[in-house]
């Protein structure tokens, strides 16, 4: 049961992939404030070094989210250092955008390697270390549930796969008492926009255009997605196999 008094994740061990910036970093700070010992991953030494300064008290590890051997090494390290993983937030992902006629094999593989293969094998290797009552959260996207931006075909397909993982892993891990749920954010302004190949003008157009399409009239924040992750990690004790849209009503209204 979630704590009524005190911190919601007191004494818990949380592993967040892709946690050096954006939604992952915001969630790491929130989980830490709620009493968890938090481990986050970054894809490069530079991002990890920066996060070590920005995330005091949080363990930051270099780990390639698309490399299966690196994923197993990561899980082994967390098990050796902490003994278990109470909350697993499968958040690492990349987003790239290009017209269909310009998409090549590398463009396709890079996103599926990190967003789909990496997520699958992190779930596979981490699941044995998660005790009864543990929680798994996956970061998908509204792009996986509806038509996305032009050029986002591959990205949307990877997020659709994660939505499927959320349902099927929930059933597979049900006998062990592990809950699996998915967060599908709508337009959130995070550093991922700067890494996806958008020009400054395209980024500004995305942000301003989103405000006109979203019923709540604005883009979301990293903190709002982190709050949803905390809810699924600590409070939603009777919820598994669900998808929580954090999208300002974009999908349903």
Helical coverage, percent range: 40-55%
CATH architecture: 3-Layer(aba) Sandwich
CATH hierarchy class name:
Alpha Beta
Give the uncertain stretches in residue-range form: none
CATH superfamily: NAD(P)-binding Rossmann-like Domain
Q: Which radius of gyration do the C-alpha atoms yield? A: 17 Å
Largest sheet: 7 strands, parallel
Span of the ends, CA to CA: 32 Å
Beta content comes to 5-15%
CATH domain topology: Rossmann fold
Q: Your description of this structure?
A:
This protein has eight helices and seven strands; from the N terminus they run E-H-E-H-E-H-E-H-E-H-E-H-H-H-E. The chain has 253 residues and is of the alpha/beta class. It has one domain: 3-Layer(aba) Sandwich (Rossmann fold), CATH 3.40.50.720. A seven-stranded parallel β-sheet has the order 3-2-1-4-5-6-7, with helices on both faces. Helix 4 (105-126) links the parallel strand 4 and strand 5 (135-139). The two termini are 32 Å apart. The model has no long low-confidence stretch (mean pLDDT 92).
Please give the structural blueprint.
Elements: E1 13-16, H1 22-33, E2 37-42, H2 45-54, E3 59-62, H3 68-82, E4 87-90, H4 105-126, E5 135-139, H5 153-173, E6 179-185, H6 192-195, H7 200-213, H8 222-235, E7 243-246
Parallel strand pairs: 1-2, 1-4, 2-3, 4-5, 5-6, 6-7
Features:
Rossmann fold; 7-stranded parallel β-sheet; 253 residues; alpha/beta; single chain; 13% strand; 8 helices; 44% helix
